[in-house]
Amino acid sequence: MNDLIIHPSYFVDVITLIHIHHAQNIILEQQDSYVKQTYRNRCYIAAANGKLALNIPIVHQKKGHSVLYSSIEIDNSQAWASTHLKSIKSAYYSSPYFEYYQDDLEELFKEIPSSLLEWNIKTLHFLMHHLQIDRTINRVVNYEDNALAKRLITAKGDALFQLDSYIQVFQEKHGFTQPLSGLDLLFNLGPAAGSYLKKQYHKL
């Protein structure tokens, strides 16, 4: 059985999506500690001025203590959601498939859980649904110290591997950009995204 353990991230990146597409079962880690500099509270999109980080503000807890990821709350006192939605629209309004998914994206942002973990799981379901990735999703009961899961959630350093390029909105200006959120793949390739993900299997 091809199981993949992942730490739920904000609009999961394309490399993680390749692993998800290749797997039979997805297991969500929810017993881990919150770590900074990861995709837990950020994703990247391709904007007019280059790669843009979308960061979710969190309610900070007492310093010097390990904090469970599942206990992290989003700081909704800041207008981050409307800013992120506006940035995504600005970046992708001219992409080939944005208009097909815009209404569902706006609907997603209307109801945001206070829990960062649960919000990230919602964004994962959004991408998997629209990319037509139908996989069984379970949650771990006990912490799994999984090396690949920890590597995939890390936002700093080089990508695990170089993706084959696909057409991006600002490619002529900035060249092919990675790593980016799966939103980039969805809006640029639409229904063809599944075939693209499958063609990347040999890099795993």
Helicity level, as a percent range? 25-40%
- How far the N terminus sits from the C terminus, by CA atoms, comes to 16 Å
Record the strand order, biggest sheet: 1-2-5
For the sheet with most strands, the description reads: 3 strands, parallel
Structural class determined from secondary elements: alpha/beta
Q: Which descriptor suits the 3D outline? A: globular
Rounded radius of gyration (Å):
16 Å
Number of domains: 1
**How many helices in DSSP terms?**
8
Q: Give the ordered list of helices and strands.
A: EHEEEHHHEHHHH
In percent, how much strand structure appears in the residues?
5-15%
Number of strands: 5
Mean pLDDT: 95
Low-confidence spans: pLDDT under 50, at least 5 residues? none
Care to describe what's here?
The protein is 36% helix and 12% strand. The protein has one domain (3-203). It is globular. With 204 residues, it is an alpha/beta fold. The strands form 2 sheets. The chain has a 3-stranded parallel β-sheet with strand order 1-2-5. A two-stranded antiparallel sheet has the order 3-4. InterPro entries: WbqC. It holds the Pfam family WbqC.
Structure keywords:
three-stranded parallel beta sheet; two-stranded antiparallel sheet; WbqC-like protein; WbqC; 12% strand; globular; 204 residues
Question: What is the secondary structure topology, with strand pairs?
Answer:
Elements: E1 3-6, H1 14-22, E2 25-28, E3 42-47, E4 50-55, H2 80-92, H3 98-108, H4 116-130, E5 136-139, H5 147-153, H6 171-174, H7 182-189, H8 193-199
Parallel strand pairs: 1-2, 2-5
Antiparallel strand pairs: 3-4
